[in-house]
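hiii so um. not sure if this is the right channel but i have a protein structure encoded as tokens and i wanna go backwards to a sequence. like what aa goes where. can anyone help
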């Protein structure tokens, strides 16, 4: 129980001060005039002004509150290295027991794990949340058991008491880590890309090591080993082997005695893109569809187009001298003998054999396809005649033979059942509607049995056939009326999208492969996607970074597309297999933020600790003693840490009574005034 004198003025303070000043002036006048009762009048003024200030005696009954000490335990991934987990467990229990044994002290333990999405150690955030639930006036200090590698120093709360770090590192700790300094997200196929990495040793590393081995693996293949300097940036020239995603894994073997090998590996995913797609378009004669092909190919900035239209065939005799024509001569030898292999795609649009391209040139084109090239035939009536480009070397690679019949009738192109699964035509009906405008002509063909019929026309006859020949690809479009869709005839149809997909499939763009397996990662979860022309696919086999093998069934989500979700428990390179398809994907960072730096340190927390007069000690030297220190004084020293007693209390009851009751004020004031008057009257 405590008692204090308090004031509760009856009038504003300024008015009481004015009255006091007036009384003091009157007193000074009385002294100057030599009045004998000035002292008694002064006492009367003091009593009256004192009564106006409202003096009272307040008596409080208080209940003392315990001091609170926050014991924060860092249980993030880096705290699992070496003996840090055991050291933290032992120190936490011993400190909790010591603090609980102190008089008037309460312990609040806070455990901090890994933050989601590779957020690292969010120790300061956890400390701020714990403090928000407690009265600041009761917090006597905070003790942090950690390696000091925290990742939210910006979230440090305003600490009213000392903060101490008891770090779990040891003097002999060292670690080797591999760091990617610079890696592009995209690279052009066939061109060299440069990637910079550095391998460093931190801490008490062995002396005399000047170089270390480096293993490089592409898409999970057998790694190649190189010797690279230690501690110096290393620039590696790389050439991507294929288009699409390329997963590069860099790793250095685990050295004896280092803290962890989790930061000895780095994954880099680079998308391989073509610099320019070179296309040769040969139009056998001018017609409405010629502009369709030209507009499509010229609209793509990544396509280099070489286009020739045969305007004056050899049999045309109009008497105009060749030297007076402004046309460019068709460089047949240069294109079809010398530079044919430089093109990614050759399109023959309504071309027929009229002696312009000799058989040897067409044979060279067939060999170009078997070696990995692509040829697209857009057929018109010429394809059904005796001069058809089909007759000759192309017969061995075109997926259908003409019957010499030309169908001049209206029909609506349809996607076949197989076409709904093929990436060239999959989803066209859903995206653009199924009722497309009619085409008015089709060349009747008989499939040879090797190609895929993805679209049908009049009487369900093959309209679009796709085939693989050797290492290359061939497509046959048995109509020259695709341009009707572009003109909006009877509502039109997906002309540009169909032709774009067709051209890019022939140029082997990875996203249009009909048999493919890939995965898309989001954090620790991956979506495994399998595309296939078959109705069923086997379970996907998943090999984790640690070598464990498991399977997962795939569910068909749309025609030809199978998916499943997989939650990866580990971070690193996963290998996926399904039938004859294989791929790899990096799930999460190869070196999480918790393993970027693994040596214990006080550098990050030093400014915060210094601001609170706290200290840093190593658990390796044993637990420190705990002392009480006054607020504002140094709270750490050799082998000890300090806590600031807060002296907090809770007020249970309050009683208050006036020091000058009204009757006493009137009695005293009247007595002093009368006494002064009588004294002055006798004189």
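sure thing!! here u go:
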């Amino acid at each position: 129980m405590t008692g204090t004198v308090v004031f509760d003025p009856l009038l504003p303070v300024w008015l009481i001060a004015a009255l006091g000043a007036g009384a003091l002036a009157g007193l000074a006048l009385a002294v100057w005039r030599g009045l004998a009762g000035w002292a008694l009048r002064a006492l009367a003024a003091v009593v009256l002004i004192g009564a106006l200030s409202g003096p009272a005696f307040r008596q409080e009954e208080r209940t003392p509150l315990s001091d609170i000490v926050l014991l924060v335990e860092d249980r993030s991934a880096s705290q699992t290295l070496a003996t840090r987990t055991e050291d933290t467990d032992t120190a936490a229990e011993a400190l909790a027991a010591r603090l609980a044994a102190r008089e008037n002290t309460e312990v609040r333990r806070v455990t901090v794990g890994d933050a989601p999405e590779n957020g690292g150690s969010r120790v300061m955030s956890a400390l701020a949340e714990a403090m928000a639930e407690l009265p600041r006036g009761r917090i006597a200090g905070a003790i942090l058991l950690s390696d000091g590698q925290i990742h939210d120093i910006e979230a440090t709360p305003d600490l009213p008491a000392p903060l101490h770090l008891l770090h779990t590192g040891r003097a002999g700790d060292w670690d080797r880590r591999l760091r990617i300094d610079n890696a592009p997200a995209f690279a052009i196929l066939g061109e060299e890309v440069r990637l910079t990495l550095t391998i460093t040793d931190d801490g008490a590393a062995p002396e005399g090591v000047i170089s270390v081995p480096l293993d490089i693996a592409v898409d999970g293949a057998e790694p190649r080993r190189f010797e690279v300097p230690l501690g110096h940036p290393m620039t590696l020239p790389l050439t991507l082997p294929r288009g699409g995603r390329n997963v590069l894994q860099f790793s250095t073997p685990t050295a004896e005695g280092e803290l962890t090998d989790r930061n000895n590996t780095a994954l880099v995913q680079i998308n391989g893109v073509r610099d320019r797609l070179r296309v040769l378009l040969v139009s056998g004669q001018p017609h409405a569809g010629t502009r369709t092909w030209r507009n499509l190919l010229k609209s793509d900035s990544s396509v280099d187009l070489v286009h020739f239209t045969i305007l004056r065939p050899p049999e045309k005799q109009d008497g105009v001298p060749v030297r007076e024509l402004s046309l460019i001569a068709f460089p047949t030898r240069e294109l079809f003998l010398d530079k044919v292999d430089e093109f990614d795609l050759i399109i023959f649009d309504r071309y027929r054999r009229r002696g312009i391209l000799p058989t040897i040139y067409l044979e060279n084109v067939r060999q170009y396809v078997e070696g990995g090239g692509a040829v697209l035939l857009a057929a018109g009536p010429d394809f059904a005649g005796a001069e058809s480009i089909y007759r000759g070397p192309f017969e061995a690679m075109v997926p259908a033979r003409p019957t010499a019949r030309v169908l001049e009738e209206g029909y609506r192109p349809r996607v076949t059942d197989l076409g709904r699964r093929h990436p060239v035509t999959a989803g066209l009906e859903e995206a653009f509607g199924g009722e497309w405008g009619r085409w008015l002509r089709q060349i009747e063909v008989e499939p040879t049995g090797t190609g895929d019929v993805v679209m049908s026309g009049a009487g369900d006859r093959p309209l679009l056939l796709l085939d693989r020949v050797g290492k290359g690809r061939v497509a046959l479009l048995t109509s020259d009326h695709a341009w009707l869709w572009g003109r909006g005839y009877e509502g039109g149809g997906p002309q540009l999208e169909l032709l774009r997909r067709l051209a890019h499939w022939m140029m082997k763009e990875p996203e249009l492969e009909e048999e493919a397996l890939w995965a898309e990662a989001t954090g620790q979860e991956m979506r495994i996607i399998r595309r296939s022309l078959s109705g069923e696919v086997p379970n996907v086999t998943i090999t984790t970074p640690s070598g464990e093998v498991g399977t997962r069934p795939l569910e068909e989500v749309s025609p030809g597309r199978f998916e499943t979700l997989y939650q990866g428990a580990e971070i690193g390179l996963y290998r996926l297999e399904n039938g004859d398809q294989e791929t790899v994907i990096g799930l999460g960072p190869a070196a999480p933020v918790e393993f970027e730096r693994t040596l214990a340190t006080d550098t990050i927390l030093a400014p915060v600790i210094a601001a609170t007069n706290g200290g840093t000690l190593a658990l390796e030297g044993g637990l420190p003693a705990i002392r009480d220190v006054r607020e504002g004084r140094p709270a750490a020293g050799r082998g000890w840490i300090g806590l600031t007693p807060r002296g907090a209390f809770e007020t249970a009851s309050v009683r208050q009574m006036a020091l000058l009751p009204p009757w006493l004020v009137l009695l005293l004031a009247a007595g002093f005034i009368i006494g002064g008057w009588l004294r002055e009257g006798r004189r």
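oh and The chain has five domains: 2-62+651-682, 66-170+601-647, 176-274, 277-506, 516-587.
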